[in-house]
Amino acid sequence: MRLAIVPPRASEFAGQYDILFAYITVVCVVMTILIFAGVAFFALKYRRRNVHERPTLIHGSMKLEILWSAIPLLVFLSMFAWGAALYFDYYIIPKDAIEIYAVGKQWMWKIQYPEGQHEINELHVPVGRNVHITLASEDVIHSFFVPAFRMKRDVVPGHYNTIWFRPTKKGRYHLFCAEYCGTQHSGMIGWVTVMDPMEYENWLQGGGTAGSMSSQGEKMFQQLGCSTCHLLDEQGRCPNLRNVYGNAVRLADGRTVIADEAYLRESILNPNAKIVEGFARDIMPTFEGQVSEESLLQLIAYIKSLSKNPTGTIGAGQAGRVAGQAGPTPVTEKGPPQR
Length: 339
Ligand code: CUA
Known about the structure:
The chain has 339 residues and is α+β, with helices and mostly antiparallel strands. The protein has helices at 12-45, 62-91, 197-205, 213-223, 226-229, 261-269, 293-305, 316-324; strands spanning 98-105, 108-112, 118-120, 122-126, 131-137, 142-146, 151-155, 161-165, 171-177, 190-195, 248-250, 256-258, 313-314. Helix 4 (213-223) crosses helix 7 (293-305) and helix 6 (261-269) crosses helix 7.
């Protein structure tokens, strides 16, 4: 076995990251050498030569002080500027990224694909495509780490974290949990397989008998009784969920929020946290503890599937109807029609 100092470079980000890392290392080594050499040089040059020697008083030099403050400041700020530029790149998810969902659980990674595929401790991705992973935790903090992609993100309970990458090389790469999460933490490992896009398509076709994530979510939506209040073709006791995802929602307290995954998740687990304008509190029970993180992602996938082109403001129209007790036809003042 060949011992590698750095893991293979298998993502778009890996090369850029390695250059920055090398730069930081070189700067730190050069600075360290300069400082230690300076200390040694001055200690020798200005050593006390005999017991009667009295040092001469040296007055400060403004020029020198500014110079030795400004130059290191600029050198170290360059690391910050470079790092920040990369960081933004790393955080802004490209629009064309394919979506995959990962749930960390003591002690495994559960991966699911919108098409309905499920796997444990295995992740399959196509080479050359942007891949966006939504991370959730069923229990404690984990950390999703693929060294070959130079990519690591904490997976925090009660919160969705996201990560994206573009694999550039086919192969099998290590997947680790990089946050101590209990006895079997070291066993919470898996493999990322980077495949040819064609192979990937074929792979997606195989398996996944349970249906797509959104169709599984739709089943849950019926089973949990969500569909009795969240009617899709008219206004029920709870907001109509058509075209909610990705849109602005006006709340009872006057705020406006964007209905993203985090908002939908919170509304399922803690319905009173954000009440849509015109609707009452305490109508919807909490589903905390009744729905697993995987099922939550399926429910959210279903609600996302109800919204094809997110535009406009939800809340105003629906609220108007409830407050005004208008006729049976759902009307929104803004945004796409409700059916
Ligand atoms: Cu999960 Cu360590």
